[in-house]
Amino acid sequence: MVYKTRPVDSYGSRRELEDNRLIVGLLTVELFLGEANSLKEKRRLLKGLIDRIKARFNVSVAEVGEQDTWQRSVVGVSFVSCEQAHVHQVLAAVVRFIERQGTVLITDYQTELL
C-alpha cells in the first residue's frame, strides 16, 4: 500500500507546524512484587496491573526490564499529547494509581519528555 504525503508548504506556516507538535512522555517504573513467588505469579500480577492501567488511562504499557527476575520488574508507560502539562498530569496519575494498588511497591520511577 502506498501512502501519499502532502508537501511541507501545504501545511501552512512554520509557526503552525510548531503549534501542532507532539509531546511524548515516557514513564519508567521500577517495581518490587513481594507477593510473587515464581515467574508465573509475577506475570499474573503484572498482567492484571497493566490491564488496569490501560483500562483507566489512554496510555501504552509494557514490561521493559527484569523479565526473568521473579520479584522485580521495570514497566514502561508512554503517553502522547500536544500539551506538556497534560503529559505530566497523566503520567503522575499513573504513578499514584500504581501506588494505590497494594500488590506492588514502586522502588524508583523516572519521567522523560521527548
UniProtKB/TrEMBL annotation:
<dbReference type="InterPro" id="IPR007546">
    <property type="entry name" value="DUF503"/>
</dbReference>
<dbReference type="Pfam" id="PF04456">
    <property type="entry name" value="DUF503"/>
</dbReference>
<dbReference type="InterPro" id="IPR036746">
    <property type="entry name" value="TT1725-like_sf"/>
</dbReference>
<protein>
    <recommendedName>
        <fullName>DUF503 domain-containing protein</fullName>
    </recommendedName>
</protein>
